[in-house]
Fold this protein.
Amino acid sequence: MIFEKVKSEIIAHNSYFVGSGNQAAVIDPRRDIDVYLELEEKYNVKITHIFETHRNEDYVIGSLELSNTLGAEIYHGDKLDFSYGNGVKDGDKFEVGMLELEILETPGHTDESISITLKDKESSNEVYMVFTGDALFAGDVGRTDFGDKERMSGNLYDSIFNKLLPLGDGVIVCPAHGKGSLCGGAIGDLEFTTIGYEKKTNAALQVKNKKEFIEQRSKIKLEMPPYFKKMEILNKNGPPILHSLPHLKQLTIGELKEYQKKEAQIVDARMPTAFSGGHIPNSISIWRKGLPLFVGWMLNYEDPIIFITDLNRQLDEIVRYCIRLGYDNLLGVLAGGFSTWYKGAQEIGHVNTWTVHDLKKKYDESIFILDVREENKWEQEGHIEDAHNIWVGDLKQRLAEVPKDKHIVVYCDSGYKTSIAASILKMKGYEKVTNMLGGFMAWKKAGYPIEKE
Amino acid sequence: MIFEKVKSEIIAHNSYFVGSGNQAAVIDPRRDIDVYLELEEKYNVKITHIFETHRNEDYVIGSLELSNTLGAEIYHGDKLDFSYGNGVKDGDKFEVGMLELEILETPGHTDESISITLKDKESSNEVYMVFTGDALFAGDVGRTDFGDKERMSGNLYDSIFNKLLPLGDGVIVCPAHGKGSLCGGAIGDLEFTTIGYEKKTNAALQVKNKKEFIEQRSKIKLEMPPYFKKMEILNKNGPPILHSLPHLKQLTIGELKEYQKKEAQIVDARMPTAFSGGHIPNSISIWRKGLPLFVGWMLNYEDPIIFITDLNRQLDEIVRYCIRLGYDNLLGVLAGGFSTWYKGAQEIGHVNTWTVHDLKKKYDESIFILDVREENKWEQEGHIEDAHNIWVGDLKQRLAEVPKDKHIVVYCDSGYKTSIAASILKMKGYEKVTNMLGGFMAWKKAGYPIEKE
Amino acid sequence: MIFEKVKSEIIAHNSYFVGSGNQAAVIDPRRDIDVYLELEEKYNVKITHIFETHRNEDYVIGSLELSNTLGAEIYHGDKLDFSYGNGVKDGDKFEVGMLELEILETPGHTDESISITLKDKESSNEVYMVFTGDALFAGDVGRTDFGDKERMSGNLYDSIFNKLLPLGDGVIVCPAHGKGSLCGGAIGDLEFTTIGYEKKTNAALQVKNKKEFIEQRSKIKLEMPPYFKKMEILNKNGPPILHSLPHLKQLTIGELKEYQKKEAQIVDARMPTAFSGGHIPNSISIWRKGLPLFVGWMLNYEDPIIFITDLNRQLDEIVRYCIRLGYDNLLGVLAGGFSTWYKGAQEIGHVNTWTVHDLKKKYDESIFILDVREENKWEQEGHIEDAHNIWVGDLKQRLAEVPKDKHIVVYCDSGYKTSIAASILKMKGYEKVTNMLGGFMAWKKAGYPIEKE
Amino acid sequence: MIFEKVKSEIIAHNSYFVGSGNQAAVIDPRRDIDVYLELEEKYNVKITHIFETHRNEDYVIGSLELSNTLGAEIYHGDKLDFSYGNGVKDGDKFEVGMLELEILETPGHTDESISITLKDKESSNEVYMVFTGDALFAGDVGRTDFGDKERMSGNLYDSIFNKLLPLGDGVIVCPAHGKGSLCGGAIGDLEFTTIGYEKKTNAALQVKNKKEFIEQRSKIKLEMPPYFKKMEILNKNGPPILHSLPHLKQLTIGELKEYQKKEAQIVDARMPTAFSGGHIPNSISIWRKGLPLFVGWMLNYEDPIIFITDLNRQLDEIVRYCIRLGYDNLLGVLAGGFSTWYKGAQEIGHVNTWTVHDLKKKYDESIFILDVREENKWEQEGHIEDAHNIWVGDLKQRLAEVPKDKHIVVYCDSGYKTSIAASILKMKGYEKVTNMLGGFMAWKKAGYPIEKE
């Protein structure tokens, strides 16, 4: 059989391409579908089936885009009223060459969530793999807070303990997400796992009974980015067809300033140190690899988006990151990159950088220490004394808590999210803002004291 | 200044990308425009101008496709009533960074043909280059048989002798076509040339006066493929926007046979030897690199097109070849390539292959020797005794000249066009058909006698 | 953790790249090591350990090449006296970031064979994966015929039943080979497997006891290509360092003929149909994708090797296929590909092609049907009546069995190995040779009678 | 004919690949020769000749590397006693397919300098192109200061006026360098030029007579980087063979610090803003695209070199830049890039950044303005009032001129060379160092006053 895992980095989304003979199926395709067309050509097979394990809320699914190009059928759980595709239910079977794919309804993360078992009839009649969507991950289970938490958690318990685990220890588990996804807080970074390995090692499964499982799930607090709402609607109704990746226009300083007046969103995709060394005033700092994680928190879907990079290389990567989250309002880049700006004698903004040693040495009451990590990290890992915690995603809403007249020293895990926060503070008129590079990670490594409630 | 020549192989079409500062222009873009977008990104410039030297008849121009993505303006001669773009005339000037592009009307090939001179003001005020479209090539001049030959030839004489040559010997000439193009019969394969070099070496320019030039032009016989008509219409009205390259579907034997019943055009893109060794009955043989030259003679624009290759590798190349000629009716490939066919126990057709020595030895009156080269090659280079000349492009129309009851030995220059001809004969029911591999080239090399009228 | 499977196609060799933090290890590297250097760069890690599961006999291992570039240490079983690297034994442990790799001696395939278990301490203290080398495959076990079969088979039983299977059903199994490898006859094409899945489905494991296992193993007949001897020596002593892939020189017809006189080996890497349609006399036909499987049977390590292809594209692929098997005696290609040959008025050879229907219809006693499949296929799947079986690898040695005065119709599974056989017959002076395209596969599909002893 | 220009960016070196039939020649190959091997394969030709227009001093020539792989012969002027290759002299002719290459001795830049004319006999018997090495460039002529300036300049005059210009206006000129090269100060950025265009526009050719030419040449002051000496020796004796590109090892913080103790050279290849925002103390800042221009000024050939980048992407580019200049002492990179450093709680250095407006506003006597542009720019373009000029390449030698107790504000053309200078100052213990971003370019754009002697 043919088996390929297609990973979308950082949003940590997994899709799967499975085939046999001259036929193939795709599970949970992403929106930039070229990778599947290349696999089709590489293996000389025809994609005939597209499965969605559930209506996703963390990225835009590519089923319609793929179906539009290939004519393949789309299948998803029938417990939600999708505007496209075909509903399936427990026990439905599909043949793809010698493969047999069978639907297993596994609600919990969402009501219409399905898992799909795979048998390779060429080698045996036993279940070989199971695509678990957002029900079971390596090291975690799906979040259950998109509806009534208790009901959802109960359903998930039943799905996992009564449907997935009984498949047998030797069955390979292919989940829809890897480490870093917002769909589960403790997902590990194993490429694959098995029912047996999860039974032994997955913390969420070490419970006495359903009740304990529900209780534990109820305690979990996970961030809920604002863009999730948009994803839900797009994935229920079917997102717009792209046909090809949007093209980023090359802009002059003059054009950029015009667009800026018209509310364009300027995203500086350089590294935190580069942003510190100089940046376009009123731009937001989101480093390149952080785009998949933070555009959904920081940008809106209406105003055009302009990117600032050093050399405008590999823009294609940036475009993919954004359209996977439904951001089709991409406009362009500053031609020539950031240096065009200062060569053009424009004003620049700065953010100071400190090491952890600098903070340790210089801390006094003129300083306000702002911790922008997730609330659960603040609680579980502890924090620097006197720091004030506001999750970077909430900073714009909670600015009242940050004094305007102090020197704001910001930290996060290592300095990246801090740059986002610092750029927000600068935009909002804070004058003295410092990024403590290395963040909590370096603070710990330096052996400095940690406070824990 | 930035200068890139973008060549479309085999149709031997040249487009040019020129830029300065943060700006660029494209001259005669092709329809698969990704290459220009990549250059834009590579050089960090914005394409602001698109020029068409004339309404082409040998390929579909990509101006609208490019303009649709970028918003750049299109310019072409104002002596034709285009459905899109802006008309320009003698003396119109355009600034692209420090470059100055100036229009020079140079009718002859077509009435609205323009050339464009380029000055790089950064280095001097002298003309540096001239984009001559189909007026002046390396080693030849544009064909003048798309209208009244005498009038067109006279115009071309004026354009070349009174406008282009006076630019000065040191001016670099950038023509719209290279060797192999159907837009001139004697185009050389020099990448670039100069006014000075052409004055000395271009045979078409070695004339006493306008009269002699017109006389010589009138004698030229060039093939006129049927698809030229289609190109003229598309390029006058603006072709359909593609957005992205069409995708070739993977087909099973059963699907292929179904489509074949419905008049699908099966194109075998393998090499002549492979076609000889076995092929799908009623497929037409056009080797991969011959597609740009012969799909326009052999295929229609309505019935779906299916390709047969060995391994279905680099299908993207095949798709580009076809859409450049306006063939958007591309359907798919046989999944698995040709071997799928014979593994499926299907019937196959054969074409014999002979060396030139075989023909020399075995020739007798049971054999009909068919020469499928261009008529002017037959005349100028001579031919094998007793051979009968029908240009491969005319074969379908002139089958009555080929006896059904003889063994047909076909040859061309080297054996490729012969494979096309052989496939036509097989489709039309000829039973014994042989490809004389090596063709006239090998025949000469072997020192065998040549007949010349 | 970082996990990448690096597959060498067709020889179906798997190597693995595993990492954690800023460190990585490679298991069974291949000789063209660029892929590992790219992974090192991609993941920003340093390869510190190289493991060899055993002294391979079917390909040249790249450990020394990789170590030479990186300085990483090499480890292999201490039961063989390798000329390089470090011996390891049961229970030896290695840390690679948070990974713990532990040696498990698993003799059977060879005496010094080891397996390596992997724990990812970041997720748990349980065994997550096991690299089983040639002990346990998906669907089969390692061959035990490189030494005393009974002893080896007994050892293998112990290794599998007492060491590997007890690791637990949920452990992921990463074997050194996939389907198509000569290291096991029944290896399946699953990308990964688990202890649990193999226990249920692997035919070799469905035995009552050690005795039955040994008996079954003893019955297995697997081909033993002549090049295995060379591999054993190279892999024990360490192969020559390449530094970079050899370059194939472009040769003229004249040069090729000179080399041919000096015993150069001419390999026609085109498809069987192309070889049939015309080829260079005295060349051996091995289609491109068949090179990894058949150069080891057909070519020697001394005389220079010249390849014939259609367009000399992707020569890099051909070079890799060969150096993985220790063929460093690569010389060049015919510049311009096969058409250069016939354009040069050279003599060509032919092989007829028939469909299965042709054989069915035309068979009479003037025909000798030669079946060149593996002996066990002949036995297990049956054959065409009156056919004579000689495995293509043995054909040169057993030519006396093939009558010179008959029309030899050759078949194999589908027509590829047949082309090799046909080329050997032509070289040896057989005049009428036919490749029955589609082979036994098409014969069955056509529903024609099959004979079985 | 086949014609490809192979450009090595930034050192602005041009090599040429010309071919005809199945043969090709390379003129002035670079040391990373893969590009020529790919062209050989692309065009299906055999490289038989390698020409060197002169013994270069600004990069390591790849002739031996290429010849070592291919066996092609090397040719260069016979007025220098090279340790390898064959001497040629005026009038020597070489056939490459239908091309005729003829040697024209054109001393001046060096004594053994040659030019090579090219005729394409397929199109005519006229000279089509001339490869002028470092004799004649687009917009400039070769520098004549590597020996006795007057004698060399006189020779160059004769070479250009008596040998090159008489070839005719229409001849295409292919020089060995483009804009940015240190081999001529005023080379323009035209991809190609012609004798005619140069006669009209090249400032160096607008002289009354030889005497004036010599006088003008004598006035030219060009930088002479220290690495030129090394290049001269390598290119006379033949540089070491590489076989393949060196591999950059991944290093931990600990390893980097160990190497730093042992005099390793740490090169920070990030952009100036990133370096400003934070860097490893005692590292030298040379932005990625500046490496080809400045490693030769800043690094030695003995101590190992370690690179710091953001993400360690495209390291291959960095390696090529360095080995082209003979830097084979490349060691590695910090695994994970610069962020590894601050996550590891290490100390960091800073450089302030100012806009031109900041300097204008804040300038007082506590500030020392350091201009690190080339001396001739300082003279020709003017400078900021009170600034002090030291060419960045001389800064280490002239530190005594820079006061230790002042705030040093450094500027160059735009801010890049400034970062190099700033990093040197920081290494030498200067505490307050500021990079005036945008440099003189922005200063002018802002309309601020310029001083000119």
